[in-house]
Amino acid sequence: MLDQAALRRALPYALDGVDLPFLGPKSQGKVRDIYRRGDELILVTTDRLSAFDRILGLVPYKGQVLNQLAAFWFEETQDILPNHLLDLPDPNVAVVRACTPLPVEVVVRGYISGVTQTALWYRYSQGERNIYGIDFPDGLHKNDPLPTPVITPTTKARDGGHDERITSAEIVSRGLIEAKLWEHVSDAAIAIFQRGQAIAQQGGLILVDTKYEFGVDAAGKLVLIDEVHTPDSSRFWRADTYASRHSAGEEPENFDKEFIRLYYVAQGYRGDGEPFPMPPELAVQAAERYITTYEMITQRAFIPGDLPAAPRIAQAMQKRMRDEG
Fold it and tell me: What's the fold here for domain 101-247?
């Protein structure tokens, strides 16, 4: 584990992006720079951290953690469903098969939690017992495990809009996804989530909830895409303190980027207007948490890539192109 001094030294080298014109035109997501070459996508995972649908700042090694952790999970779940990963030519780069993404984000929840008005616990606490088309039993308390994991899907927002809650029945009735394919998606999502919970538990973490993205490849097969069970896409709690804190009515120790959202909220920022820059010490704490999460889940030591990352990435991709001939 890198100490705080090493992480502070890495702050000036955090990867904001990379220009690789020899790969063609670049498109940008919140965290990834994306290049397309034929039927492949080159995904460069940067150190940008987003919350409130905005980029708050850069966290050293975050991109490497996300890229390598997603690769770990793709390998651990490929017996359940194939994925789009082809190659990892650099710690921050994944080469993947281009797929057609399904128009729904598949959110799987293992616990009843959350404080926003769209969260399961908020709606349950208001007396609702049928949420997202799912019946919930009486007698649940905040942060309780659900009897079985549930899927609470959303449509994918376009043009800066917000994701829309939707039920499984509406996904089919609206023609977003054909019934048989949605059944396959649902079965795969629950199985991958349960595999994730089991592996996370071995490392001392509880996988609370997560989001998945699925696509269809050129042969029409369902494929797991994007990223899997990372601190960006998932919520984790520390397993060793969950029971005692829960019985005392305290919030679990979260082990993802939620603490950054809470810091901004405590300073009065809730997503309106431009956010203030992430303080360096907060970036260092975030880097520690991302790296620790990687090490707890994979039970491997994190080996940092050479900095600065941009020339290293360019060199790796130029070598890959030469090797392709």
Answer: D-amino Acid Aminotransferase; Chain A, domain 1 (3.30.470)
Please state the pTM of the whole predicted model.
0.94
Reading the chain (325 residues) residue by residue, the pLDDT tens digits are: 799 999 999 999 999 999 999 999 999 999 999 999 999 999 999 999 999 889 999 999 999 999 999 999 999 999 999 999 999 999 999 999 999 999 999 999 999 998 777 789 999 999 999 999 999 999 999 999 999 999 999 998 665 556 788 999 999 999 999 999 999 999 999 999 999 999 999 999 999 999 999 999 999 999 999 999 999 999 999 999 999 999 999 999 988 888 898 899 999 998 899 999 999 999 999 999 999 999 999 999 999 999 999 999 999 999 999 998 7
SS3 for 67-123 is HHHHHHHHHHHCCCCCECEEEEEECCEEEEECCEECCEEEEEEEECCCCCCCCHHHH
What's the CATH fold of domain 4-100+281-324? Answer: Phosphorylase Kinase; domain 1 (3.30.200)
| Token duo for residue 132 | 């997202």
- In the chain, residues under CATH classification 3.30.200.20 are 4-100+281-324
